[in-house]
Amino acid sequence: MQIKRIEIQNFGRFQNQTFNLQAGLQVIYGLNETGKTTLHRFISGVLFGFPKARDTQRADQNDGGVLILEFEGQTYRVARYVNKAIQLSVENLTSGEQALDPEKQLQTLLNPLNKQLYQAIYSFNQDDLLKIYTLDPTELNEVLRSVGYPGTDEWLTNAKKLQRQASQQFGKTKTSKRPLNQALRQLRELQQHWNQLMQKAPDVQQLQQRQIQLRADLAALQQSQAQEQVDLQVQNKLQLQVPMWEKIQRLKKEIQANPNLLDASRQADVETTLQKLQLLADSSDERQEQFKQFQQAMHALRQIQQRGQTVHENIRQLEAMLRQLREKWQPDSIPAPLTVAQSKNLHAHRLGAQRFTTSGNTNAQKGAGLIGVLGLLLVLLGQWSLLGGVLMVSAGLYWGWRYWQHRTTDDQQISLPGYENWDVATIELMQPDAQQQALWQQQRRQLKEEEEQLIVRQQKVLTELRNLSRQPQADVQQLQKIHAKWQMQVQVQQTTQVQRQEYQALLQSQLNQLGLADVKDYRQRKLVDQRTRALQTQLQTLEQQLGDVDQATLAKFSALHPAHADTAEEQKASGDEASDKQAQQLQAELARVNYELTAFETDTSLETLNQKIATQRSLLQNEMQKYFVEQLSATWIQQTVEHLTQMQLPQLFKVASGYLQRLTQQKYIQIVDQQGQLKLKDQSTHFWTLDEVSRGTAELVYVTLRLAYAWQLKAQWIGPVLIDDAFVDLDASRRQILFEILGEFAAEGYQILYFTAHDNLTLQPTLDLN
Fold first, then answer.
1. CA-to-CA distance for 674 and 145, rounded, in angstroms?
2. Per-residue model confidence as pLDDT tens digits over 715-741
3. Whether 99 contacts 704, CB under 8 Å
4. Measuring CA to CA, how many Å separate 665 from each of 164, 470, 668?
């Protein structure tokens, strides 16, 4: 469910104002007295009803307003006013239907929430968090448990009330003052009386004699108790004062055995020096070692970066020289240089072509010359002129063919992988550049591999630096700032160590003046002095309590009764208990005799006694039925609540523990419920009760339980969460993590309305009330 628009007709300081809200995390910003809390209460009032005689300046019919809600693709208009004939109306703006039962329709939109559950989980402010600081540990634990499973408090209260009512009616007790106990006793007495009547009549004369005897025995016993009380009064007084006197003597001896108290002024100087040393806490070797590791890692990172720049520049230069080679020979790429076998084949091919050309030229010249001369002679002589012409033509053709063969032999190509369509001369001319290109390419590959290795090494060093700085997302610039900050801290710690050494020397001098060797001796002597002062205070109190009593008499009585004072007291108490028990027995028996005599004199009709027994049984049956109903109801409520919480609580604590881990940066990793008491578990598996952790941590537990419960209910209901200026007292890191968690809620469809008077929050969008 999303709140799209707020239309306030008249509420608090707002009259005829409209506010448009957006989905997700919505910051509502305003200074004090600008209406943030009023707007918060208006939203709760429209959804669940306005409190009587509150939040309105006048009791007019116009007090109230409208919320425009979006729920499951439908838009609803919820209007609520004070003192109008129709105080609540719900309209489906998408379908145009007006709800006949607006309360039921609104409950459908809010189901399964009610006002109590909504205020317990989805609406809270800084006052709710500050309230934690006024609670004692037991009350704080109860508040956090109620947030963990809200709505059960009222049921458990009713269960306790039912149990209390039942226990007030019936239970194990010596005095039998409870109604059902009394009714059972009366019924038993009536049945006993009936049995007596069924045995006809009792011996009245014997009862009367027993009555006289019991009264006489009781009077004698009371007189004896009074005399014993008088006789033991003095002894009791002395027995009460002797232990006090003896304790005074022991205290005096113990005080005399202790050394004299330290000089107050010199002790004050020692305490001042200790406080200064405590303020100048010694630097941690672990932190210095951590800084040393961090500094070494930063040096390694700089070396890697410098080497990376050098490798990158060499790669760039090699690629430029390779481009120049390719531009020199024009093709897209220069083939690989010839192997040794390919070079030998190329050389052999060239030598064979030269031999063929030389021998062919010599034979051709000779043959062509003879044929040409013979043809010329035949023509000149005029004989066989046709034959001579043919011979001359043949010689010319042969010469042309040999010339063409000579040209193609010189231009003959060789087929090698990568050198297709290349002539032999060009291949040989290119070999130095091809070899240079192969060398540069190999160097470039080696540099590329080194560059990749440098990137891996740099990533490892960055991971180590982030782990040391506990900043998993920090970049190089941030790590450099952390390094500078740590370096400054180490320098400050070194200065502090010098001051600490000076104060340690001063402290040793002050201890020597007191006659003590070191701080350990001083602390032990301080404990002894504290013990002496406590003994002196105790001695003064006992002497005041003893007053002006004659201590000589006490010393004499103590000497006569050194080991039997406690035994005499126990014997006196035992004798008093036996006398009281005997008196109670006599009184009980006398009461029974009186009752029997009275009953016999008044209840002469067996029928009347039967009627009384029947009436008493009916009354007892009704009261017992009521008792068992209350007991069973209380037991059922407790078992049901316990079952529900056991089903819900583990998952709730799991989600809340995840939030708490993030908020405390893994200091506390789990929230557990041990026998009804919430505890926090840290990384060392130590469990902390809520009164052992800081109030700020308890506040985070309070917030995480609310958020975890809201997260658990997201399958049933997702709606607006109202937060009124909470979290402002948290430190920046925890507040930022809380806003990240709220962002996750917003991503799931929750509408977060965060009311704040602080404008330093980098959250958008913002509704400004100023």
1. 12
2. 778 889 888 877 766 788 888 888 888
3. no
4. 46, 10, 8
In the 8-state DSSP scheme, what is residue 133?
Answer: G
Residue whose structure tokens are 């006599």: 586
- Looking from the CA of 289 toward its CB, the CA atoms found within 13 Å total 3
How many whole angstroms separate alpha carbon 6 and alpha carbon 8?
Answer: 6
Which of 526, 532, 573 lies closest to 264 in space, CA to CA? Answer: 526
Q: Is 123 helix (H, G, I), strand (E, B) or coil?
A: strand
Report d(CA 627, CA 633) in Å as an integer. 10
Structure tokens at 674: 């041990």
Query: How far apart, in whole angstroms, are the C-alpha atoms of residue 553 and residue 539?
Result: 20
Kindly report the pTM of this predicted structure.
Answer: 0.41
User: Residue 732's CB: how many other CB atoms inside 10 A?
Assistant: 8
Say how many CA atoms lie within 13 Å of 599 toward its Cβ: 23
The packing angle between helices 695-712 and 137-148, to 10°, is 20
Neighbour count for residue 166 (Cβ, 10 Å): 21
Q: Dihedral angle at the C-alpha atoms of 219, 220, 225, 227, nearest 10 degrees?
A: 120
Judge whether 132 and 702 are in contact, CB under 8 Å: yes
The number of angstroms, rounded, from the C-alpha of 583 to the middle of its chain's C-alpha atoms is 65
Quick check: 680 and 697 in contact, CB under 8 A? Answer: yes
* pLDDT per position as a tens digit, 349-378: 666 655 544 444 555 555 656 666 666 676
Q: Please state, as a whole number, how many other Cβ atoms lie within 10 Å of the Cβ of residue 360.
A: 14
Name the strand (E) or helix (H) holding 554.
Answer: helix 551-560
Cβ(566)–Cβ(205) below 8 Å: no
Collapsed DSSP state (helix, strand, coil) of residue 670:
strand
DSSP state of 413: B
> Which residues, including other chains, have CB under 8 Å from residue 236's CB and lie 6 or more apart?
572
Summarised one tens digit per residue, pLDDT across range 233-288 is 766 776 777 788 788 888 888 888 888 888 888 888 888 888 888 877 655 555 66
Return d(Cα 498, Cα 504) in angstroms, integer: 10
Residue 29 dihedral angles phi and psi, to the nearest 5°: -105, 140
Let me know: does 748 contact 718? Beta carbons within 8 Å: yes
User: Are the C-beta atoms of residues 668 and 697 closer than 8 Å to each other?
Assistant: yes
Among positive and negative, which fits the CA dihedral 138, 140, 144, 149? positive
Exposure letters 459-484 (e unless 16+ CB within 10 A, then b)? eebbebbbebbeeeebeeeebeebbe
Contacts for 641-650: CB closer than 8 Å, 24+ residues apart: 641/152, 641/155, 641/156, 641/159, 644/149, 644/152, 645/148, 645/149, 645/152, 648/149, 648/712, 649/148, 649/149, 649/673
3-class state of residue 340 by DSSP:
helix
